[in-house]
Amino acid sequence: MKTSLCMLRRPAFGISLYTLLFCLLVALAWPARAATAPAGEPISFQSNGETVHGLLYKPAGAGPFPAIVIIHEWWGLNDWIKQQAADFAQQGYVTLAVDLYRGQVAPYTDMEMAHELMRALQQDRGVAYLTSAVAYLKTRKDVNVHRIGAAGWCMGGSFAMQFAIAEPSLRAVAINYGAPETDVAQLKKIHAQILGNYGALDRGITPADVHAFAQQMKALGHPVDVKEYPDAGHAFENPNNKTGYRPADAKDTEQRMTAFFAKNLKG
Questions:
Q1: Rounded CA gap, 135 and 192, in Å?
Q2: In terms of CB atoms within 10 Å, which of 110, 136, 201, 225 comes out highest?
Q3: Separation of alpha carbons 112 and 121, rounded Å
Q4: Which residues of the chain have pLDDT under 70?
Q5: Of the candidates 56, 21, 203, the residue with the CA atom closest to the CA atom of residue 133
Q6: What is the dihedral of CA 119, 122, 128, 129, to 10 degrees?
């Protein structure tokens, strides 16, 4: 399996020379400005004796509502990720954006910091944070405990893949340019419906990687909805990525996720 910009590998993170050079170019292209973040309710929960923090976004009304765990990119829980959580809340989901970096956020211009933050986060620990987030959501009266999903981008997309393996109660998981799993024994553990959005020009996660994952899932009797965008590379959904942002493709992924979660969490 090849390494990508924000790719999670088992048991640790791996970054290739190509990826480091690619990340540097991307980091230089990302603007320094930050948009105003939508307000979320700060919450905390326990995970194996640790206190994990996050931001909770709630729809209007009493519920119970379906819920979505939001998983950030390798930059951290920044304003763009908060906006994704707020947008899903407006669609009728309780959304919990989990802070995997415990308060640290790398600016778009500091690729080295993002790299170090990602390297310091062990896969098992991060997945444990996410499964504990589900446990927290199930304690809330405004959450339908039988209708919980997840969405992640970049590193968060890779975590979303592993989260789907580790948490059988998830019903729907959207993976946006995250590393696909290749171990059939692990894929057999997935119960959730899977949506994948990938850029065909992403040289870290190649079309061959994505096709292999989709074919393996189909062979297991669990087809996935995977789409590749021919003119897109990595991180094409984030408008802060000036050189790589593809607005038409990003709009299409938004529509795909809206329909996907409505069908599998609301339907």
A1: 16
A2: 136
A3: 15
A4: 1-37
A5: 56
A6: -30
